[in-house]
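tool=predict chain=A
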Amino acid sequence: MTSIPQRSKPRSLSEDFERIFQEHHRIVFRTAYRVTGNAEDAEDVLQTLFLRLLRRQCPAALEANPIGYLKRAAVNIALDVLRLRKRSAPADESIEIDDRTEDAVEVRQLVVSALAELPQKMAEIVVLRHVEGYDNREIARLIGTSRGAVAVMLFRARARLKKVIEYRMEGKK
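tool=predict ok
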């Protein structure tokens, strides 16, 4: 005869998890907002990241460097949001705005969509460097590689971004 598993009590949030959330949720939101440019998407990133943490054991990297781990995770989830948005975006969303704002929005959209086409690791490094302001040594430590590897990936990522943006700019002429 098989036994029916007992229902366990609902899991309460651990004090550590609550502390980590309270201390770092603003950083996660700002990081996600810088990548997505959208408050709703940044909220989705924040929620996704902390739900994932809640569902699994605390990674050692989180304990060792919570800000670095959370920023890196926020960047990765935000890049996933951008890729998803790119696939499901309507063909034309016209909004009445002045020329300067329109140019800034267009450039930002160009960069964001080009960034979404990069491989995950390259996009992550570009965002950590140019959005979050980490230097190559800090990025290397965060992702577990050498400074030289970071420099090479940044060089290649910039070259790919340039090609994608130039291609799209040519298509608009």
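The mean pLDDT is 80. DSSP finds eight helices and no strands in the chain.
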